[in-house]
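Researcher: Next sequence.
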Amino acid sequence: MLEGKGKIKETDMAEKMQMQAMASASEALDLHDVFDCLSIASHIKKEFDKKYGSGWQCVSSQK
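Model: Next structure:
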C-alpha cells in the first residue's frame, strides 16, 4: 500500500460512509496500479453500489 493521506474533497456522506470510502480506496490501491485512476474509482463505486445500493459516483485523480 502507498503511504500518504487520502483526501475527501467534497461530500455530504455520513462519517461512517466516508471511512468506508477511504477503506475501499486503500483496497483499490492494493489491487490496481496507482496511476490507473479509472480502475481505482470503479472499484470504490462498485463497493458502494454493493453496500449502499446503486447510483454512486466516484472520481479518482492524481493530485
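Model: DSSP finds two helices and no strands in the chain. The chain has a mean pLDDT of 89.
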